[in-house]
Amino acid sequence: MFKIALIIALxxxxxxxxxxxxxxxxxxxxxxxxxxxxxxxxxxxxxxxQAKESGVGSAYAAGSVxxxxxxxxxxxxxxxxDENGYQPKGAHLPTPPPTPDYILKALAYIEAHPxxxxxxxx
Length: 122
Hints:
Keywords: Cuticle, Signal. It holds the Pfam family Chitin_bind_4. This is Pupal cuticle protein Edg-78E isoform X2. GO terms for molecular function: structural constituent of chitin-based larval cuticle. There is one protein chain. It contains two helices and six strands, in the order H-E-E-E-E-E-E-H. It is elongated, with a radius of gyration of 26 Å. Mean pLDDT is about 85; it is low at about 10-15. It has one domain (about 25-110). The protein is about 25% helix and about 40% strand. Strands 1-2-3-4-5-6 form a six-stranded antiparallel β-sheet, with no helix packed on it. The chain has helices at about 1-20, 100-110, and strands spanning about 25-35, 40-45, 50-55, 60-70, 75-80, 85-90. It starts with a helix and ends in a 10-residue tail after the last helix.
């Protein structure tokens, strides 16, 4: 009986230790900054987090992040950031509902019938 209790206790300790992400270590780290303002960085951890990015100063950046969420879902996020703003892409991100037909028709009408600007006297 003591052997079974000891085996179960060791198993529980191993499972608890494996789930404790505070013990994660850096397995990969690269960081490069060039004189022209461009840069690259990349890192990985022992608990499966992977991230990388490259860019030019504050003008442009592109990168990706991958990790396992607490619910077990694999998260893969790719992104760019430039003059058009931050643009993330990932299957886990919510998507907007489709644009209703009546809105599409209204937009097509507005495009086909542009408003003539009225000049007011000042």
